[in-house]
Amino acid sequence: MRTDVSPALVLHLRGPVLLGPDQEIPEVWVIDGRIRHERPELPAGTDIQQIDGYVVPGLADLHCHLGIADGGGGTTLEAARQQALTDRDTGVLLIRDAGSIIDTAPLQQQPDLPRLIRCGRHLARTRRYLFGYADELEPEELPAAVTREAGRGDGWVKLVGDWIDRGVGDLTPCWDAEDFHVAARAAHHAGARITTHTFGESTLPLALDAGFDCLEHATGLTDETISRTAEAGVPVVSTLVNVGEFESYASQGEKKFPDYAAHMRRLRAGRYDRTRDAHDAGIQLLAGTDAGGVLGHGIIHDELDEFARAGLDATTILDAATWAPRRFLGVPGLEDGAPADLLVLARDPRTDHHALRERSHVVLAGQIVA
Ligand SMILES: [Zn+2]
Q1: Residue 37 falls within a domain, yes or no?
Q2: What is the span of the domain harbouring residue 157?
Q3: Amino acid 44: pLDDT
Q4: pLDDT at 1
């Protein structure tokens, strides 16, 4: 289903316009869906809408699942569209989909939805993940599967790196060191980047050794892997709202898997310290919610509140949700000529991240959508 958008409109945004953490300009114009730093030549009588407020790039959710229903299972394409609209209306205008059950590519043709960068199906070891979510495979099938998903997605492949091993009764890596290498080589050979879902401590050195480009959740970061991740320049998508749910995984597994339950509780308890330590060590944190499946959509602001609980300052939080993910994904922010995907705020988000909840306008491709 395609929703028609209203005809071209010229906006004059009287900022400050925040181009980066330390860079602002007083005003921009929006014409033909694009940002202009200089006032464009306009025919006499052009209708210009003046808007005052702090201008920031649209928020990004770097770990989101469109097409996975609340409570699990695939959705219809229309329901996935509604999830994207829910996210959009909270100010999320850029989504990196971290694995979907359905093919969400048709959503990319819908101009009223956030920009979507997909990783295709995520890849998991047989019987080592939530049933029915991912493509399940064995090590010998990895190279072909990674190559296939690299071709189906938008430059990203996701490998589920660890999960509960019921034989061991705890989190263990799903793959050995060579498998991580093989997967990374196949992704890079296909011109894609590769990320991994990881909760446990012992998976991180394997992913880092193999040259993975990003880490999802990364609750198992230690002093050693924090410095290695920082040194490698690999960003971490924290999904702290999801890590907060580890208590429910722990209590569900408690009877049969007491070590796993205790491990999950330890990881949860350390989540704020680990996040702050990662930031302090120079790791780029990126905002991601893990919405879809267990958590509903539209929760980006809860994730930003979690960053604040971890002790990150407002500018760092803003960076993790706007400029940094755009740079990382190669998507422009508020540069001259960039697509006008932006938010207008009543207050300065560099001093209080809650200002991002109080949007006066959400502008997507130059159209005011919320
Ligand atoms: Zn996820």
Answers
A1: yes
A2: 59-329
A3: 85
A4: 41
Centre of ligand 1 from the C-alpha of residue 298, in Å: 15
In this structure, the answer to whether residues 242 and 221 fall within a common structural domain is yes
Q: What distance in angstroms lies between residue 225's CA and the mean position of ligand 1's atoms? A: 21
Q: Where do we find the tokens 């988000």?
A: 349
| 65 Cα–ligand 1 center, Å | 7
Quote the ligand 1 centre to 80 CA distance (angstroms): 15
User: Is 1 within the bounds of a domain?
Assistant: no
CB 242 within 8 A of CB 217: yes
Non-local (6+) Cβ contacts of 84 within 8 A are: 66, 95, 107, 113, 114, 116, 297
CA distance 341 to 329: 15
* Cα 359 to averaged position of ligand 1 atoms, centre (Å): 27
pTM equals 0.95
Q: Within this chain, do residues 350 and 223 fall inside the same structural domain, yes or no? A: no
- For residue 27, the CA-to-ligand 1 centroid distance in Å is 38
Which parts of the chain register pLDDT below 50?
1-7
Our CA angle for 187, 60, 333, nearest 5°, is 95
14 and 155 both lie in a single domain = no
241, 348: one domain: no
Could you read off the pLDDT of 286-297 as tens digits, one per residue? Answer: 999 999 988 899
Calpha distance 143→186 (Å, rounded): 6
Give the CATH number of the domain where residue 173 resides: 3.20.20.140
Instruction: Give kind and range of the element (H or E) at residue 143.
Output: helix 142-152
34: CATH: 2.30.40.10
